[in-house]
Amino acid sequence: MRTATLLRSGPAVWAALVLIPVLVWFSAQNTESTVAYWPSISSQTTIVIGFISAACGAGAAWEAARLKQGAIPALAPARGMLSIAALHLGPIAVLGLIAIVAPFAVVMSSVTVPSGFPNPAILTVSYSVILSHIALGWFVGARMPKLLGAATMLLFGYLWGFWPAAIGTLPWLRHLNGQGVTECCGLDQEPSVRSMAATVMFSLAIVTAIVLNSALPKRPWRPLLPLAAFTAVTAVALTLAIPLDFNGTQTRDIALRTCSGQNPQICLWPEQDTQRDEITRWADEATKKLAAVGVTPDRQVQFGNPHPDQANVASNIATSPVPSEPPPCALRRGAAYPGDEAMVAIYAWLSLTGGVPKHDLAQRWPPEAINLAERVRALPPQAQNAWYERNMRSVHDCSVLPDLNPASYTKAAAS
């Protein structure tokens, strides 16, 4: 069959006219959390896999039903079902590939494009999901009326593409449908190999079972081998997926960082190397401002923004002494943690002291905490340090109540 005839009679071209604009629009609404780092850019495109797999699965079901209605396998018995399927599903597979690439243009237009290239592993995982839906659509469409099969795959593809991510009690499900790495990645993270392997294995289970079902001769035992293959490969996928948490990320190899300086030591990822001189200068300025009130930054500091500005650097340096998680005493069931109130105020005070502009801090921090921090900054340096040391005790110890009133330290400084 000529390619032009194949494209004109099949659903791929018509589906593309609807699918591609929808993907571009949807991707444009979901770029806020994208970091200018290729694994993050690549993972953000996986959020549209539910749309793509639903459309491609429906197209495959339509083709299967149309060929069955036209008795094409009976008219060309020498070709075999696999060669017929490859010919008619090829344009749909190409549509799936184009649809994966299309969202990159949108995501990349909203961030500063880093050097390098898209993460090939994430693209492979996404495409495996699409191929599994195409195979499933071929199987379903041959067993249902034309419209019903396409509608079934459209609904199933959409639900399977988005529903597992909403189930908090079964987070491992999202590692089977290709959404496991959607929340990836911070600059110190990379996509979880285990999550991606689970997705590929589950997709492989579906494709293998349907290929075997189409290739094997019609015998009473024919369903047994595809079912056995599906069960075995799915068991491997479940073994990989079930132990995983919601986010499909793993720690990035810290050997990629380059650290320099002392007290604090500044550690930069390859994406930040071009700004090393600026970042070092800004970090030194923030460190000196903290030293004036007796605060020492953490021993080692890194930055989550691929292109940090002076406010980002000052914030990271200044707030580095604040623990990233509550102490163990606050994690016990029913435990009270008075350190929460202290941490909010301390964070604001450290940020302003380190040089973060007030208007920048006001975009993400409560005004009452900023006002309290400014009152504390009006105290003499010794009193500010006393306020900080006293309230940091409540951050680390659940039994210590904070004393955030600046007046308490004014009296102490005066005496």
UniProtKB/TrEMBL annotation:
InterPro entries: DUF7224 (IPR055648). Keywords: Membrane, Transmembrane, Transmembrane helix. The chain crosses the membrane at residues 12-29, 41-62, 82-108, 120-140, 147-173, 193-212, 224-244. Pfam families: DUF7224. Residues 266-398 form the DUF7224 domain. It comes from the Bacteria. The keyword Membrane applies. This is DUF7224 domain-containing protein. It comes from Streptomyces nanshensis. The lineage of its organism: Bacteria, Bacillati, Actinomycetota, Actinomycetes, Kitasatosporales.
